[in-house]
Amino acid sequence: MTEVTVARLGLDSTSNTYVVMLRERGGRRLLPIWIGQPEAESIILHLNGVVRPRPLTHDLCRALILSLGGTLERVDITRVVKSTYYAELHIGTSDGHVVIDARPSDSIAIALRLGAPLFAAEELLTVIDDDDTPEGAPTTGDDLPPRVPTPRGEMTPDQLKAYLAGLHPEDFGKFKP
């Protein structure tokens, strides 16, 4: 397993599906994962520090883990089968260690809220050649912030959808799930 970080989030214009781009920590390899709109919204809200008046599902999961005395030790993105990605939440409890099967998109949203590290199986990471990288896109380093401008104040669902739709789709068009 290799540690990864959330590098970008955007809309793949070829499939009209949201993509979260994970980058190998300290490297150039990437893992694009196509995700649903609710998960994309949850991730982007958290990355931009937007707090909703009522907890979203991933906030609820965070609260449940903490309330029960658990800690999210790590998230492992383990495999892809027929374009479906699989992940595991590794939760430490007073009774030991529990591994829970989960979708990567949910796992990423929960890990971000709990500050847990993300890991991906080696075989899932893809090397991007310099000539495959969009001009001006960063290609190395751990300090890559998500290419997401900070929204001002609370957004309605329609505003958030429009905001996500405007995020750098050219970064994701070369990948196929």
Describe the structure.
- With 177 residues, this protein is an alpha+beta fold.
- It contains four helices and seven strands, in the order E-E-E-H-H-E-E-E-H-E-H.
- It has a seven-stranded mixed beta sheet.
- The longest helix has 11 residues, at 37-47.
- The two termini are 20 Å apart.
How are the secondary structure elements laid out?
Layout lengths: L1 E11 L4 E8 L5 E6 L1 H11 L9 H11 L3 E11 L2 E10 L2 E7 L1 H11 L3 E3 L36 H9 L12
Parallel strand pairs: 4-7
Antiparallel strand pairs: 1-2, 1-7, 2-3, 4-5, 5-6
Helix pairs in contact: 1-3, 2-3
In terms of per-residue confidence, which ranges show pLDDT below 50 for 5 or more consecutive residues? Answer: 130-152, 169-177
Amino-to-carboxy terminus distance: 20 Å
- Per DSSP, the total helix count is 4
Helix content: 10-25%
* Secondary structure tally: strands: 7
Radius of gyration: 16 Å
